TrEMBL record, chain A:
<dbReference type="GO" id="GO:0055085">
    <property type="term" value="P:transmembrane transport"/>
</dbReference>
<dbReference type="GO" id="GO:0005886">
    <property type="term" value="C:plasma membrane"/>
</dbReference>
<keyword id="KW-0472">Membrane</keyword>
<dbReference type="InterPro" id="IPR000515">
    <property type="entry name" value="MetI-like"/>
</dbReference>
<keyword id="KW-1003">Cell membrane</keyword>
<feature type="transmembrane region" description="Helical">
    <location>
        <begin position="189"/>
        <end position="211"/>
    </location>
</feature>
<comment type="similarity">
    <text>Belongs to the binding-protein-dependent transport system permease family.</text>
</comment>
<feature type="transmembrane region" description="Helical">
    <location>
        <begin position="84"/>
        <end position="105"/>
    </location>
</feature>
<keyword id="KW-0813">Transport</keyword>
From TrEMBL, chain B:
<dbReference type="GO" id="GO:0005886">
    <property type="term" value="C:plasma membrane"/>
</dbReference>
<dbReference type="GO" id="GO:0055085">
    <property type="term" value="P:transmembrane transport"/>
</dbReference>
<keyword id="KW-1133">Transmembrane helix</keyword>
<dbReference type="InterPro" id="IPR035906">
    <property type="entry name" value="MetI-like_sf"/>
</dbReference>
<feature type="transmembrane region" description="Helical">
    <location>
        <begin position="223"/>
        <end position="249"/>
    </location>
</feature>
<feature type="transmembrane region" description="Helical">
    <location>
        <begin position="26"/>
        <end position="47"/>
    </location>
</feature>
<feature type="transmembrane region" description="Helical">
    <location>
        <begin position="133"/>
        <end position="158"/>
    </location>
</feature>
<comment type="similarity">
    <text>Belongs to the binding-protein-dependent transport system permease family.</text>
</comment>
<feature type="transmembrane region" description="Helical">
    <location>
        <begin position="91"/>
        <end position="112"/>
    </location>
</feature>
Length: 304, 315
């Protein structure tokens, strides 16, 4: 009797908890998802409807004007292609530098383990800062070259630790010893056995580094001077962020001119489409690697 | 005598061992070599270059031969009107971000973790991670679009309900809230991943035992899940406190305009402005160095306090 009473009591409290939880989580879901959804539906709506605030739940007056406007913009195209190129080369160099380092540091018997680990850890806590780094890049004559975007960040310490922990957990010393008996050296072992067994960590590295390169604008702001070399993010900045203030000024003086108004609406609409276009590569990569996130962070946070 | 001999022998053995391991490990040394060279050039040489904070940097003379001026640039910063305002803005922005932004991913992780519907749970997680992959430029572009006084959706909604459009980016009182809460929107999901990882290591037996003892769901979250992520949370809190004087440059810089400069000029944007726009290289480096030094002190202090209070520390 008593036991039963307890049980019903528990389920009622749990039911309330479940309902509250559902409401809270759904609210969070809407808050996070709605702005993203809004960008998508705006980008395929009619410019007038977007400007007039009619687009709220679904696209109004379907049009691809925003997208045609984006693809008419030669700066966007150049920026996009530049970014694709920088990201591809950048990730390639990242992998070539990071994976062997991570593998070497994952070997317990490696004589340089302590020294090299300390060498990298120190850079996480102290750095020269913006100006001394800029001066080094300048003195190496890397200003305005794609290498200034690739070389300084060729090895991300955090990413290296994540990869090292993965190798440690998945490529055991016994495996190496077995291969060694068959006459396999470290180099051969790394390329023929360790790497093929590590596709999960390679995927995570490609995502982390790739998104980093694709989204980065700060180093380009500092180091790239020529328009035609601008990565997409710098082009985006000039359209999405800087354009804003200029528009606000012209509105006051010429608000009544209908033609200008229409052009303004189209420019505004183009921003939504531009956001979508600029996110395409990440949107493609994201679902492929998403399932590895928790695992990636987990192995990264277990320090050894 | 004997001691000396054994010492010699020990040295000899060590030397032999060293050469032996070097010979054995040389492929691994080759593996780490490219990373070492690059990190040396781009992290350690700038570290050496920090000394220009104490010199009048002259590009022809380089890091080492420029004139030594001691603390001149530091004194100039301490005495400038920007000292108080940039530090105040940086502190407010980062403490506000920390207080508002730190607990939210923890709460989010606890809630989602105790949610039963696996499919919906997965969808929420996937969506919550997504904003993290939006670039800072796009994020700021979105904010400007949504908050635009003429075509922004937020003002459209305000006008729909009979209100008057607000130029959000032009009113400096709104700026900090916009900065902090948009940051939380973007970072909440991703920051929670590490807590999901910590929660996934909680033994299910513990949950079962608690259910047997008649614990409600809320009690399970309160007494089992929550304590299990406290160590992770503490470490992250220490690390965050250690960077309290370094508000990220990118977003602040992009959201800055003439109207909000009085609340949005932080140390890092000031370093950029002084060093690369106004070209006072040494002065700018001094400000940056001061910033890192304070951060290091904060990190050490907070770590010590945490060590005393809870026994959890970074080192």
């Amino acid at each position: 009797m008593k036991k039963r009473k307890q049980k019903t009591k528990r389920t009622r409290a749990d039911l309330i908890y479940d309902i509250v939880l559902f409401v809270v989580l759904t609210s969070i879901f809407i808050i996070v998802a709605y702005p993203l959804y809004f960008i998508v539906i705006s980008s395929i709506s009619d410019p007038k409807a977007v400007a007039g605030g009619q687009v709220v739940f679904w696209p109004v007056g379907l049009s691809i004007k925003g997208y045609t406007e984006v693809f008419k913009n030669s700066k966007v195209i150049t920026g996009f292609l530049n970014s694709v190129f920088y990201t591809f080369c950048g990730v390639l160099i990242n992998l070539v530098v990071t994976l062997p380092t991570a593998y070497a540091l994952s070997r317990d018997k490696f004589s340089g383990k302590k020294f090299v680990t300390f060498f990298y850890m120190l850079t996480m806590f102290v750095s020269g800062g913006m100006i001394p780094t800029y001066l080094v890049v300048k003195n190496l004559h890397l200003l305005d070259s794609m290498w200034s975007l690739i070389l300084p960040g060729a090895l991300g310490v955090y990413n290296m630790i994540v990869a090292r922990t993965f190798f440690k957990a998945n490529i055991s010393q016994e495996l190496y010893e077995a291969a060694e008996i068959d006459g396999c050296g470290q180099t051969q072992f790394f390329f023929k056995i360790a790497l093929p067994l590590s596709s999960a960590i390679i995927a995570i590295m490609v995502l982390y580094y790739g998104v980093g390169h694709w989204n980065s604008y700060f180093s380009a702001l500092l180091y790239i001077k020529t328009d035609v070399k601008f990565p997409l993010q710098l082009v985006l900045r000039s359209i999405l962020v800087q354009n804003e203030s200029q528009l606000a000024q012209t509105v006051a003086t010429a608000a009544q001119q209908a033609a200008l108004e229409e052009k303004r609406q189209l420019t505004e609409l183009m921003k939504y489409s531009l956001i979508i276009v600029s996110s395409i590569p990440v949107l493609i990569l994201y679902p492929l690697v998403q399932k590895h996130f928790v695992k990636g962070v987990m192995i990264g946070s277990v320090k050894g | 005598m004997i001691k000396q001999e054994s010492k010699n022998r020990k040295n000899l053995i060590q030397k032999k061992n060293f050469l032996h391991t070097l010979k054995r490990d040389y492929p691994l040394w080759l593996f780490v070599l490219p990373g070492i060279i690059i990190t040396f050039i781009f992290s350690y040489v700038p570290l050496y270059g920090v000394q220009i904070a104490f010199r009048n940097y002259n590009p022809k003379l380089g890091f080492w031969d420029s004139n030594w001026v001691g603390l001149k640039h530091f004194m100039r910063f301490f005495n400038s009107p920007y000292f108080a305002s940039t530090i105040k803005n940086t502190l407010i922005l980062s403490v506000y971000s920390l207080i508002a932004g730190f607990p939210i991913p923890i709460i989010f992780a606890l809630l989602v973790n105790s949610f039963r519907h696996k499919k919906y749970k997965k969808i929420i997680q996937t969506v919550a991670y997504a904003p993290n992959f939006i670039s800072t430029v796009v994020m700021c572009g979105m904010l400007l679009l949504f908050l635009s006084p003429s075509v922004g959706i937020i003002n459209n909604i305000i006008e729909l309900f009979g209100g008057k459009a607000v130029n959000f980016m032009g009113v400096k009182n709104y700026w900090r809230h916009i900065y902090v809460w948009s940051g939380i929107w973007q970072g909440m999901g991703w920051s929670s991943v590490i807590y999901f990882a910590a929660l996934s290591s909680v033994s299910p037996e513990l949950h079962e035992a608690a259910v047997m003892d008649g614990a409600s769901k809320f009690q399970i979250v309160r007494y089992i899940d929550f304590p299990s992520i406290i160590p992770t949370a503490t470490i992250l809190l220490i690390l965050n406190c250690g960077s309290i004087l370094s508000v990220g440059f990118e977003k602040v810089f992009l959201l800055q305009n003439d109207l909000n400069l009085s609340v949005s000029q932080v140390i890092s944007t000031y370093v950029y402005q002084v060093g690369l726009i106004e070209n006072s290289v040494s002065y700018s480096t001094a400000i940056g160095l001061f910033n890192s030094a304070v951060n290091a002190l904060l990190l050490i202090a907070v770590n010590k306090i945490s060590d005393k209070l809870s026994g959890i520390s970074l080192w």
